[in-house]
Amino acid sequence: MVKVYKELNDILLVNLNIKEASLENGDAFKAEIIKLFDKYHKSIAINMSAVEYIDSSFLGSIVSAFKHLISFQADVVLVGLSKDITNLFALTRLDKVFKIYNSFDEITNQ
Amino acid sequence: MAISKPKQILLVDDDQLFLKLIEQVFKKSGFICTVAPSAEAAIVLLQEGAKPDIILSDYLMLKMNGFEFRRYLMNEAAFKDIPFVFLTFFSDKDLVEKGLDLQAIDYVIKDTPINVIVSKVNNILFAVDKQRELSENEVKKAAKSLNIKSIPVKPPEIKEFTVDFWHQAYHGIPGGDFIDFIKVNDRYNFIVLGDIMGKKWMAWFFTFGFLSYVRSAVRFAAFNEEYSTAKILQQVNSIICFDEVLKDILSSLSLLLIDSETNRITYAGAGDLPLLQYSNETGELTMVSSSGLLLGLFEEGNYTEKEIVLNQGDRLFVFTDGMIDFIDKTGKKSDYNQFSKTLKPFMEKENNFTHIAKSLFSGNLNEQVDDRSIISIYKN
User: Fold this and answer.
1) What's the pLDDT tens digit per position in B266-325?
2) Of the partner residues A53, A64, A91, the one whose CB lies closest to the CB of residue B331
3) Cys staple from B376: which of A34, B114, B291, B353, with CB 3.0 to 4.6 Å?
């Protein structure tokens, strides 16, 4: 579900290859992110451009993975959110919690 | 009762001809088929979100064989519970035993006529559904005997206002949405709507932890005559962040206080969707947003308070995210504006919440993707 795209000095770029992010894959997603963090020990940028729908259970899994990483002074960064998902993040104030970028290039060009 | 929908089957076989044949027969029998020419391809499909009700896999395949495939699935939390059936030959008898050791539900001899294979798969799925239903009924009975509810039986009676609510559990199983009405006295009434992130029983179990904290915080506030919804939310959030059981559980919450003496409503929200306020005078629906973060996220939740004034005939809607989720031809969607647009024409012609709920919300259960809850506060 989560595939490593590129490892940079301070951040790992990964692709989330699912169309529907929901209860069914939320726990597995969280476990994969934590496993990647345990291996690379750095912040993780998740490209979510393939995701068309996200439910509150999966949002909970993202937030939970984020809480885990920030407890180790790392971060979860979100990339390529669709318009609907961007709106959902704004409506529920999660856009104030996560750093959100349009593409990996925006991160690498920083 | 669960609504029956077409079953999805994942067919895995490196014999392309057999795969095509079996796919056609399953399709004719009403199945939604996903096919994979190898175990590796099947794993990619599953990782990309395929959600079959059952997997029918050949044993003898190049590279990864059926057993290795099954062993892989057994080690993946998301896939290990998908019923798995081996397709094999009589000559693989000893392998069949090994396969059943891997908790494959059954095996089917490959020479069996395909319509018999379909019947066998149907029987397995029927048995799995029946078992699931029995387990759910057991939990439902247990919950009922404990007499605990996360949704009230009826709306409260509040001076100057008419409060109604509508709730529909996802697949008929109690979930993470919770509603509470707390009457302090004739003047003050609190309205609580929360949504634990998760679904079904797991989320339902935690609703009582959250509800207990909200009730306690409201009671303490009332005891101290401190009627601030933002302060109550901050207090609840602080406790949850320290609670060993709840600290990894997140919840949205809308907390409203109705003052029947001044007719004012104060509102604070935690990661909840903006409320919708209908003005009887202008016929417009406007968003009422709050600033607070989800309960359990950070110790400082940035909760602020908003004052809402409803005039006669105005209405305020408080709802969970299940209300804005729907399914169309292209898949599942969350669309707040669409929900608001659908609601608006009804507001202009219909004054009765029960009628609004019946016309708008009680649609096709197959289109429901989460718990759905909405509270209406109408100014008499």
Assistant:
1) 999 999 999 999 999 999 999 999 999 999 999 999 999 999 999 999 999 999 988 988
2) A53
3) B353
Distance CA A43, CA A75 (A): 5
Tokens of B285: 């629906």
Residues of chain B in Cβ contact (below 8 Å) with chain A = 47-49, 51, 76-78, 176, 195, 197-200, 203, 248-250, 252, 271-274, 289, 291-294, 297, 321, 325, 330-337, 369-370
Looking at the structure, tell me whether residues B91 and B202 fall in a common domain: no
* Domain edge (last residue) among B144, B176, B205: B144
In B197-263 the beta strands, taken as DSSP E runs, fall at: 251-259
Could you tell me if A79 and A102 are in contact, meaning their C-beta atoms sit under 8 angstroms apart? Answer: yes
Q: What are the tens digits of pLDDT across the range B130-170? A: 888 887 777 777 767 666 678 898 999 999 999 999 998 87
Domain at A2-108, CATH from 3.30.460.10, 3.30.750.24, 1.10.760.10, 3.40.630.40: 3.30.750.24
> How many CB atoms are closer than 10 A to CB A82?
15
Interface probe with A: pick from B51, B73, B197, most Cβ of A within 10 Å: B197
Place of tokens 């306020």: B277
Alpha carbons A47 and A101: distance in angstroms, whole number: 9
Q: Which residue, among B21, B11, B13, has the nearest Cα to B38 in the 3D structure?
A: B13
- Expressed as residue numbers, the domain containing B315 is 149-379
Q: Which of B49, B252, B325 sits opposite A18 (nearest CB)?
A: B49
Question: Does residue B372 sit in the same domain as residue B356?
Answer: yes
Please state the ipTM of this predicted complex. Answer: 0.88
Task: Give the distance from residue A108's alpha carbon to the nearest chain B alpha carbon, in angstroms.
Answer: 26
Same domain, B79 and B123: yes
CA distance A72 to chain B (A): 15
